[in-house]
Write a structure and sequence with these properties.
The complex is a heterodimer of chains A (419) and B (92). Chain A is an alpha/beta fold and 419 residues long. Chain A has helices at residues 25-34, 69-73, 77-92, 116-129, 138-142, 146-155, 170-183, 201-209, 249-254, 283-295, 314-328, 341-344, 351-365, and strands at residues 10-19, 22-23, 40-41, 54-55, 105-110, 161-164, 189-196, 240-248, 261-270, 305-307, 336-338, 367-368, 391-392, 397-404, 408-415. In chain A, the strands form three sheets. In chain A, strands 1, 2, 5, 6, 7, 8, 9, 10, 11, 14 and 15 form an eleven-stranded mixed sheet that branches. In chain A, a hairpin with a 3-residue loop joins strand 14 (397-404) and strand 15. In chain A, helix 3 (77-92) packs across helix 6 (146-155), helix 7 packs across helix 13 and helix 10 (283-295) packs across helix 11 (314-328). Chain B has a single domain, classed as ACP-like (Non-ribosomal Peptide Synthetase Peptidyl Carrier Protein, Chain A, Orthogonal Bundle). Chain B has 92 residues and is mainly alpha-helical. The chains are: A alpha/beta (419), B mainly alpha (92). Chain A binds chain B through residues 68-70, 73-74, 132-133, 135-137, 140, and chain B through 27-29, 46, 49-51, 53-54, 57.
């Protein structure tokens, strides 16, 4: 069995989360296990004119608790969320900048959109007051790669650094790219994940017009995100950031780092089918799972838990279920499957990262978080989605998939850290 | 030579200094006590070129004057910035 050497095996040593159900990995995990919804009526602006008036907002986030005041003033919310999650992940990993080779610490942070709120605000300034009043910070605030740039500035990491953008698969791709940097020996530590702050009037209108959001639960927001349930009718936008610290096993052992789990494999494919609709055959989504399992040297029967993309759109959940059955065969019915999005909403480019944190937490705690709002069975979605209640179960190996507009499919594989 | 009494001149300069300090505190996120006449915008108050561009726009709003952004990049200290604003205020 190919397990690689300590130099090429990669472990997760720290995790940071800013989510609609909690800030910090402990609060986030507590919310997930309790089945708490983060969805409510939008407070960032008045959504009255929009068909969808709900979202999963991060509440009680004080950027200055994590970020220098001057950086707060000249950064978009998505960057502030990323900086906060990175700070918490680095603390969680007990990574001391003075004890590592900063030239060999890299950052890859994904975002589906980047600083859209800043673009909208400054576009209003352009129209109302003219070009001379547009903020000189607009460009560095809006570019999707700036979150990674700011993390490097804050912590002094001088290794590989860029953003990945593949819509809702962005952070899974960022994590996969980071895994490869470590395996190729280009870095010893990678800070990676994703951040998104999409709850703006323009973004809400755009996703509504694309028919992607549910509009049926404005009066009952907590019930809106219901992946795999028969009454699902679209996703709910969320915001937040997830950042993890990856290291080669050798580096982690050398510095005595806390090891959360092993990041054992990754793969990505594309549907080559449609800009927003998933391929009904689910071939490429299935192939991403198969390739990721092969990359991790695991057989489908070894997987205990699957963190689904599970968006709560009618098409995704049906096609994803079909793809899971194709990959796992009879074992599909032995899998515990859950959708984090049932509680957090859809964090778009940050989804894969916060879902990796959830997946690792399942392994560490021996508890699988539920998929909430499971009331009406859909005959096309007939697997075990861990409905409504968390469940005790030992998880040794798990996978997490993220799919994105553009037909992007990505899967990461995690396994229990072995002594 | 100004025809106005020195007292009024001093009052005007204090007024500009106070309003300028508010702009600098807001944009540079420094503490008010860090702003002294001899404070250097770049070296002491950590203003970068993007900050200076924003300061130029803020000065226009605050003092209702027309600022040439390139000139703001030539300002060294807080005292020079006060001089600059007063020069603009006196311009015809």
């Amino acid at each position: 069995m190919r397990r690689g050497t300590a130099a090429t095996r990669v472990v997760i040593t720290g995790m940071g989360v800013v989510s609609p159900i909690g800030i910090g990995r402990a609060a986030y995990w507590d919310g997930l296990v309790r089945g708490r919804t983060g969805v409510g009526r939008i407070s960032a602006f008045d959504p009255q004119d929009h068909p969808c008036q709900i979202a999963a907002e991060v509440r009680g986030f004080d950027a200055e608790q994590f970020v220098a005041p001057k950086t707060v003033r000249r950064s978009d919310r998505f960057t502030q969320l990323a900086l906060a999650a990175a700070r918490m992940a680095i603390d969680d990993a007990r990574l001391d900048a003075s004890g590592v080779d900063l030239d060999r610490c890299g950052v890859v942070v994904g975002s589906g959109i980047g600083g859209l709120g800043s673009i909208e605000a400054e576009h209003r300034v352009l129209q109302d007051r003219g070009p001379g009043r547009v903020s000189p910070f607009l460009i560095p605030m809006m570019i999707a790669n700036i979150a990674g740039g700011e993390i490097a500035i804050a912590h002094g990491f001088r290794g590989p650094n860029y953003a990945v953008s593949s819509a809702c698969a962005s952070s899974n791709h960022a994590i996969g790219a980071s895994l490869r940097h470590l395996q190729r020996g280009e870095a010893e530590v990678m800070i990676c994940g994703g951040a998104e702050a999409p709850i703006t009037p323009l973004c809400l209108a755009g996703f509504c017009r694309a028919g992607a959001l549910t509009t049926a639960f404005n009066d009952d927001p907590g019930a809106a995100s219901r992946p795999f349930d028969a009454r699902r009718s679209g996703f709910v936008m969320g915001e937040g950031a997830g950042i993890v610290v990856l290291e080669t096993l050798a580096h982690a052992v050398r510095r005595g780092a806390p090891i959360c789990a092993e990041l054992a494999g990754f793969a990505s494919t594309d549907d080559a089918f449609h800009i927003t609709q998933p391929d009904p055959e689910g071939n490429a989504a299935a192939r991403a799972m198969e390739l990721a399992l092969a990359d991790a040297d695991l057989r489908p029967e070894q997987i205990d838990y699957l963190n689904a993309h599970g968006t709560s759109t009618p098409l995704n959940d049906r096609f994803e279920t079909a793809a899971i059955k194709r990959v796992f065969g009879a074992h599909a019915r032995q899998l515990a499957i859950s959708s984090t999005k049932s509680m957090t909403g859809h964090l778009l480019g940050a989804a894969g990262a916060v879902e990796l944190v959830a997946t690792v937490s399942c392994i560490q705690s021996g508890t699988i978080h539920p998929t909430i709002n499971q009331d009406h069975r859909d005959p096309d979605c007939d697997l075990d989605y861990v409905p409504n209640q968390a469940r005790r179960r030992q998880v040794d190996c798990a996978i997490s998939s993220s799919l994105g507009f553009g037909g992007h499919n990505s899967t990461v594989v995690v396994r229990r850290a072995q002594a | 030579m100004s025809s106005r009494p020195q007292e009024i001149e001093e009052h005007d300069r204090d007024d500009v200094a106070a309003r300028l300090a508010r702009v600098l505190v807001k944009i540079l996120k420094v503490r008010p006590e860090q702003i002294r006449p001899e404070s250097r915008l770049a070296a002491d108050l950590r203003a970068d070129s993007l900050d200076l561009a924003e300061i130029a726009a803020e000065l226009e709003d605050e003092f209702q004057v027309k600022v040439a952004e390139a000139e703001v990049h030539l300002i060294g200290t807080v005292a020079e910035a006060i001089d600059y604003v007063q020069r603009l205020q006196r311009a015809p």
